[in-house]
Write a structure and sequence with these properties.
The protein has 281 residues and is of the alpha/beta class. The protein contains 13 helices and eight strands. The protein has a single domain, classed as Alpha-Beta Barrel (TIM Barrel), CATH 3.20.20.
């Protein structure tokens, strides 16, 4: 099996001088930073051909809207790209445009800042316009609790920006419960899949949730590929639980595509990501 591109390499650095934590951030839990994917661990995974490339996402609750970590690491290697987060309350798009001017920054990541927040985090027209003008990608993280309203708003935004690539995290964050049909493929997900510029991402957490609820991640990924196509699905490691190695996450991603044809496996683990992020991997 060939090496995948990790579309959600969630890195944390313990170099607090160069990459300080947000002073208002909740303190890390014991061992949390040590268990996270560090720049050094990612560099070793690239050197050892565990992954062919990666898209860097930072831990928002540690680094907030300070993008120095992901941009500094991505600038060092053509096999890396960064997704940046921008505080929509403090910008009219200027900061997003500054970040997107760098070739190693692939797009802007939009995520609810706290549970129960209004949809302003998603609906910033300034950020969408900045991405559209730069030909950059918008990555959207949905939670089960904000999913219906966010998908409705997202559909309107996509209609206004039909040329902007949109990547939806965690297969749209559908709640996957025992006995749920089609592994969470429901009407809201189908409504997003109607748009040709929308791609979906499954993560190590997605695999764990699917296995825990329905026992077969490979069947779920096969079902999704039949639903939307292999060229509209990619993989990212995301948050790894304590004690789980990066290599284990990669191996499980490779196992999750085993029911697909070889060209579909290549698309899901490598080709889709390479196209979306213009990677030199």
């Amino acid at each position: 099996m060939f090496e995948p591109i990790d579309c959600h390499a969630l890195i944390v650095s313990d170099d607090r001088d160069r990459f300080p934590f947000d002073p208002d951030a909740e303190p890390p839990r014991p061992g949390e930073v040590e268990a996270s994917l560090s720049p050094e661990r990612l560099g070793a995974a690239l050197a050892d051909a565990v992954v062919a490339g990666a898209v860097l996402v930072q831990r928002g609750r540690f680094h907030g809207f300070d993008n120095r970590l992901v941009t500094a690491i991505a600038a060092k290697d053509v096999r890396l790209r960064a997704l940046c987060t921008v505080d929509r309350a403090e910008t009219h798009g200027a900061e997003a445009r500054r970040l997107l001017a760098s070739r190693h920054v692939a797009g802007i990541r939009l995520m609810e800042p706290h549970k129960g927040a209004d949809l302003g985090w998603l609906e910033s027209r300034a950020l969408w316009s900045a991405a559209a003008d730069a030909g950059a990608l918008i990555d959207v993280h949905l939670f089960p609790w904000n999913r219906p309203a966010a998908i409705a708003a997202l559909r309107l935004l996509i209609r206004d920006h039909p040329e902007t690539p949109v990547l939806v995290d965690n297969l749209g964050a559908a709640a996957v419960e025992d006995g749920e049909p089609d592994f969470g493929i429901d009407a809201p997900l189908a409504a997003l899949a109607e748009f040709a510029n929308v791609t979906f991402k499954f993560s190590d957490m997605t695999i764990g949730r699917l296995v825990g609820a329905q026992g077969d991640a490979a069947a779920a990924i096969e079902r999704f590929v039949r639903f939307a196509g292999a060229d509209r699905l990619c993989w990212g490691s995301d948050v790894l639980p304590a004690g789980r190695s990066y290599g284990e996450a990669v191996s499980d991603a490779q196992a999750a595509v085993q029911r697909l044809a070889p060209d579909e496996q290549a698309a899901v683990l490598y080709g889709t990501a390479r196209r979306l992020f213009a990677l030199d991997a």
